[in-house]
Amino acid sequence: MLLRYFTQNNRGLLFFYPIIIGLLSTALIYFLPSITHSSPLYASGYIFETQESSIWIFILVTVITATIFAGVVNKAFNSSELYFQPSFLVGFLSSIVFTISCIKIHSFSWSVAQLFLAFALFFSLQIQNQKRIYPSLFLAQISVGISICIFPQNIGFGLALTTTLLMNRSFSIKELLFSLFTIIIPLLYWLSYSFITDQLSDWFFWSKTPTTFPVNSLFSSIVFWVCSVCLLSSLVGIFKKENRQTNKTQQAKNTLLIFLFSSILSSLICWITHEPFTLYNFSLPFILIVGYYWTHYRVSLMAPFLFYLWIITHFLFAFEVIH
After folding, report:
1. Residue ranges of the domains in the chain?
2. CA-CA distance, 300 to 289, in Å (whole number)?
């Protein structure tokens, strides 16, 4: 049983992440050879996108970024007292979701941006009631700012850390100003570099391609409905207070919900401004929230059923058996 196996306190399970990612990415590349660039073109495309790169280089980069992503997300989950012992289910879900998303989107920019979001989450969960939060706050906001610069569809996360401060700590104008100032440092640095090197014409924040996610096809997608049911069930579980819940656990739950609402805000901003948006940007908050729900599978009869249903439909979607 996968749920019971990956919720054990066994650090040897960490070695399964690169194995799962490597096998899955290789299988997807082998069975789906005609990969196209479906992501919009941003300024970061000049740095990360290489049209003539070998497919094996793409697999190698995917394995490295997905492994780091899974490890960081799993570490963030375990350090937040969201389960009574260290578990490795969240890293397992990250390996599957991030790898499939990377292959489907086929974008180095998206992969690197999501990786920085994972680091932002890790440092955000360290912002609790301790007295000295500025190092964690600085690293978290810098990570969010870099993620937005690389992939502007993450723009909604610009308010995530500020909202976290308001919900998890007593009001402090000094912390709020520090948070707002730090997040614009990457953007100012990039603009300054473009100005100094006389490359302002090549810098652009929004996309240059009118690529958008086909929203109308969502309601006919089995994967969309399965993921929606899993997410809604997980939200019911995450709002439920545990018997031995600590303040740190509640603050971690608040942070997870803020990251989910930040993704929703990003989609609304892109929709209002007629910019492209992909539902793959919900990967990080989806992994964390359903991971919390499935880690506590013993308190719900529906959790194991939804887990295996999601696994089956997600793999069928990955290999284009269903849409």
Report:
1. 12-200+214-318
2. 15
